Structures are given as C-alpha cells and as structure tokens.
UniProtKB/TrEMBL annotation:
It holds the Pfam family YflT. The chain crosses the membrane at residues 75-97, 103-127. This is General stress protein. Residues 26-113 form the General stress protein 17M-like domain. It comes from the Bacteria. The keyword Transmembrane helix applies. It comes from Dactylosporangium vinaceum. Keywords: Membrane, Transmembrane, Transmembrane helix.
Length: 171
C-alpha cells in the first residue's frame, strides 16, 4: 500500500484559502488596556473603520490575589450565603406551583438552604486538611496591549495614532 500522491488531492475550497489582504499589522503598543482602548476610541472618533482593528494582550500571566485567611467558620458563612440564594430559587419555584402560604414556603426554603450550605461549606473546607487555608481571586493580566489593524488600513491608523500621541504630549 502506497501513500497518496499530493498531486492527486483536490484544490482547497474557497473557504480554506488564506485571505492575504486581511493580514494584520501592529500600529501601536500600550502598557495598559485603557491606553489601547483610548487609541481605538480616537480612531473611531476620526472616522476610521474600527471593525478592521483588534486589541491583543500579550505576555499573559495569571495573578492570584490573596483576600484573607479561610477558616472553617468563614467557609460555613460563605456556604450560608450561597445556600440561602439556592433556597430562595427553590422557594420561588415552589410558590409558582403551590397554593400554600408563599411567605412560609420562601422563608423555610431559604433557611433550609442556608443550613445545608453552612454544613457543606464547613465540611468541604475541613476535608481539605489545611492545604488551602486562604481565599483568593484570580485574574488573567497582559504585560502589554497591541493595537492591530488590517494591513490595507495600517498607514491611516498609524497617522491618526501618531496625531493622538502628539496632541497628548503637547497639551
């Protein structure tokens, strides 16, 4: 059995062809997202077809900000809050399909949800065995932001961004 000859393959479909006119060019780099956003806003304000632009974050890093120590009590308290919300949701569903006292149904489902939330929150934290005794919030951050423009409009974008930079420096 022999490998198929590449010359025997059919030509690629039109949708598979690379559109060379849509190649993008970096016209500016910024240290923060706000600067890149401001540049694209300036392009838009000056009639530039912004649908040809993109803001691309590079040098990505994951930053985890530690919010505080997590104890069994705090885990239970967080469980109370999430359980109460879930109980409220279930209570609303019950009141839609019941003729019973809706205030009593809502109150009891919120309380039951809060109780079970506290139990699951405390038990879940206790089962970690102290491996993660802190709460945190993670975010993805870029080291820099590039404003890219389709190649056919790159020169116009460069001129406008240069004008914006010059005005900002001389104001």
């Amino acid at each position: 059995m022999t490998a198929p000859d590449p010359a025997d393959r059919p030509d690629p479909a039109v949708g598979e062809l690379v559109d060379l006119e849509r190649a993008s060019v970096t016209v500016a780099r910024f240290a923060d997202y706000a600067g890149a956003q401001q540049a694209v806003d300036y392009l838009s304000d000056n009639g530039f077809p912004v649908e040809k632009t993109a803001i691309i974050g590079t040098d990505l890093r994951l930053v985890e900000n530690v919010l505080g120590r997590l104890t069994v009590g705090r885990a239970a308290l967080a469980g109370v809050a999430s359980g109460a919300w879930f109980g409220l949701f279930i209570g609303i569903l019950f009141t839609l399909f019941s003729d019973a006292n809706w205030v009593g149904v809502l109150l009891s489902t919120v309380l039951i949800g809060a109780l079970w939330g506290a139990i699951f929150g405390a038990a879940g934290h206790a089962l970690t065995g102290g491996r993660r005794d802190f709460s945190s919030r993670s975010s993805l951050q870029a080291g820099q932001y590039a404003v890219t423009v389709e190649a056919d409009a790159a020169e116009e974008a460069r001129v406008l961004i240069t004008r914006q930079t010059w005005r900002a420096a001389n104001t």
